């Protein structure tokens, strides 16, 4: 599924008439116009970015597009998880309509997962769907949110509870943009890289254990890790686009993770998404061990790897107070992966052996959270 | 495609795993619980209605559902086209999440097209899609908006410019509810019935010319007209769910119609959707005659039939001032059926011979509007 063309990799996501390419490599921003026109006949684009990313990369992107004759409109939003709001959705959709972006034109998300999720949702609902190009500039977005078509915003009831499935038409993952990430942001994205190994690719996890430093340093190992992650996600998405089954495996660590993000008020100073996933993956393995499904050694081995990568691995690693366990359980119940009162979790029988458990008793989760709670 | 079971008709919409039944007949509200459980295993529903419809039918629907053990939550909104706003969308989605409607539960739209479009859009984006049941209580909604999965809200840039494709899981078209419609509302819905004849079923149009009074009086002729309309729409939708081609035929009369709705500020005292479509269909036939595609006699014959049904058929039939022709052309350009600067219209070669023209010169439309403008 991956092929190498000069210095960039191409991962194809196979989804019938919604198939698309993910390009991964250095300096893709400067060839964005050509790569776009090679795949889409679009005359006009609306670019949505945020105040952190736009000053670094917007001019380069706009210049590349305009050189190839594509008319551009750009809108810059505040950065951070709170940007995924109904108010911003309204504003972005209005901007798209104001720019008269037609169904055959495109909307481009230039930024991390927040910009990608919000912009993709706006592209999904403007004119009931216009074309969408992801230009992810964080590691998290390159390996996760830009692949697979999940878009959305947050609600006071929880994260990503409002959204749509809307596949991109093209993803340009310019690895040069990762050089400006803070170590904390890079580590947060790395949690999702590790996730693919834990789901069903134990060899990839073992490779990461050996090459973690090289991946953090950049260069070929980093590109390899991103391409492997995109290919792993693409395979799962191709098999189950709308999450009726197997795709739920991608939520490994996310049920606990989302509850922690809610518990910390989506305050990125305390916890970002990838950090919530890191803790969530350790909790999922610990909970699996508690249910006698997996060895407790796996949870320890994973926690050790994530800790070396600079990630938090337990509730106690989060600054400040957390809500009591019953409130956290309530947040888990409000998460969208719920069926008939029983909780759905991704549990595991060991590294690379994750599975969907849709009959987890809330009482067991409450007892587990109480045990793990630092208070 | 239609079958008769006791006194109700069933029209099946064939859309692979999104196929669903439209039930048409008297007193379906009182058997809503049973009809729902016969098709969907749902424990909980959120019902969205408006202040006109809820007092008449909400109690009956709730009682039927509760008798069959389905938990119900109900929300009542203001009536009218202005209800299709981002603010109401936010409120409805929040209500759905607050009620903890899960993906396998359902949201029910009890009302006309406005409630159906808004509620369907909310059901499409809450948890990225929950089940959706349409209980249309206007003729317009029974023959048009409740069939086919188009959902959406209005924008300051135009009507239905924000939305999603989200198929219902069931449509309950209770013909008893039509007895409380005003003559004006019934006539507005009738415009869409006529449309199906004009698109590709000349025999149905001739049948309507003979049976118009019986359809207005109620009884079997009315049920027949509704079932024929639903079957006609279902056939088009099944062939082209996401409007990449043939489905655009359903927009006969709608490009002019939407522009007129915008020109009258979505003020239902001046013009409702079906009236806009009635005028729009006449204009589409007149414009086709002007382009030497069809005989001017067809436009006259259609206008005569619509006039007998109590519908407006020309710009001069609209109360109050209209914007000048160039502003109306601009509204047409902002309508979503635009491709590369040329206008897309549904034109015709005669009754039942509509076709998609995607290269209509704006200058011709401007000249035509100037000629038809009453000022």
TrEMBL record, chains A, B:
Instruction: Explain how, and how many, cofactor molecules are bound.
Output: Binds 1 divalent metal cation per subunit. Can use either Co(2+) or Zn(2+).
- Location, primary (coarse class): cytoplasm
| Sequence ranges assigned to domain 3-dehydroquinate synthase C-terminal in this UniProt record | 189-338
Write down the NCBIfam families for this protein, in alphabetical order.
Answer: aroB
Ordered alphabetically, the record's keywords are: Amino-acid biosynthesis, Aromatic amino acid biosynthesis, Cobalt, Cytoplasm, Lyase, Metal-binding, NAD, Nucleotide-binding, Zinc
CC annotations in GO: cytoplasm
E.C. designation(s):
4.2.3.4
Enzymatic reactions: 7-phospho-2-dehydro-3-deoxy-D-arabino-heptonate = 3-dehydroquinate + phosphate
This protein is called 3-dehydroquinate synthase
* Class of enzymatic activity (EC top level): lyase
Q: Which residues bind NAD(+)?
A: 113-117, 137-138, 150, 159, 177-180
One of its GO biological process terms is: chorismate biosynthetic process
Instruction: Please give the InterPro entries that the UniProt record associates with this protein.
Output: Dehydroquinate_synthase, DHQ_synth_AroB, DHQ_synth_fam, DHQS/DOIS_N, DHQS_C
Per the record, a Pfam family? Answer: DHQS_C
GO MF terms listed in the record are: 3-dehydroquinate synthase activity; metal ion binding; nucleotide binding
Return the similarity comment.
Belongs to the sugar phosphate cyclases superfamily. Dehydroquinate synthase family.
- In the UniProt record, what gene is named as encoding this protein? aroB
Cofactor requirement: Co(2+); Zn(2+); NAD(+)
Biological role stated in the UniProt entry: Catalyzes the conversion of 3-deoxy-D-arabino-heptulosonate 7-phosphate (DAHP) to dehydroquinate (DHQ).
Q: Where is the 3-dehydroquinate synthase N-terminal domain?
A: 75-187
Q: Which residues bind Zn(2+)?
A: 192, 254, 273
Pathway assigned in UniProt: Metabolic intermediate biosynthesis; chorismate biosynthesis; chorismate from D-erythrose 4-phosphate and phosphoenolpyruvate: step 2/7
Query: What subcellular compartments does it reside in?
Result: Cytoplasm
């Amino acid at each position: 599924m991956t092929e190498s063309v000069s210095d960039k990799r191409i991962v194809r996501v196979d989804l019938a008439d919604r198939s698309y390419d993910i390009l991964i490599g250095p300096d893709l921003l400067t060839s964005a116009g050509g790569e776009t026109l090679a795949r889409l006949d679009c005359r006009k684009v609306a670019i949505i970015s945020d105040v952190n990313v736009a000053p670094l990369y917007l001019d380069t992107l706009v210049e590349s597009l305009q050189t190839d004759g594509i008319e551009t409109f750009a809108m810059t939003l505040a950065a951070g998880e709170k940007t995924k709001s109904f108010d911003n959705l309204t504003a972005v959709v209005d901007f798209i309509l104001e720019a008269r972006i037609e169904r055959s034109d495109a909307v481009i998300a230039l930024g991390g997962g927040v910009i990608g999720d919000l912009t993709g949702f706006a592209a999904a609902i403007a004119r009931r769907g216009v074309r969408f190009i992801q230009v992810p500039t964080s590691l998290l977005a390159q390996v996760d949110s830009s692949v697979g078509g999940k878009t959305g915003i947050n609600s006071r009831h929880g994260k990503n509870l409002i959204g749509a499935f809307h596949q991109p038409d093209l993803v340009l993952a310019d690895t040069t943009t990762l050089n400006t990430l803070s170590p904390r942001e890079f580590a947060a994205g790395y949690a999702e890289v590790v996730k693919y190994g834990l789901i069903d690719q134990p060899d990839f996890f073992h490779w990461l254990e050996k090459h973690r430093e090289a991946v953090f340093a950049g260069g070929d190992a980093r590109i390899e890790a991103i391409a492997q992650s995109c290919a792993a996600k693409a395979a799962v998405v191709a098999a189950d686009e709308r999450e009726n089954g197997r795709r739920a495996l991608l939520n490994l660590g996310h049920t606990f993770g989302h509850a922690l993000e809610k518990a910390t008020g989506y305050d990125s100073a305390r916890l970002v998404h990838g950090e919530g996933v890191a803790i969530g993956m350790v909790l999922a393995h610990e909970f699996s061990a508690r249910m006698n499904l997996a060895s407790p050694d796996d949870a320890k081995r994973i926690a050790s790897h994530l800790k070396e990568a600079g990630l938090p691995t337990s509730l106690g690693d989060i600054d400040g107070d957390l809500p009591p366990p019953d409130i956290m359980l309530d947040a888990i119940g409000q998460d969208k992966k719920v069926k008939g009162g029983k909780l759905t979790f991704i549990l595991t029988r060991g590294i690379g052996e994750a599975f969907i458990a849709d009959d987890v008793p809330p009482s067991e989760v409450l007892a587990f959270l109480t045990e793990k709670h630092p208070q």
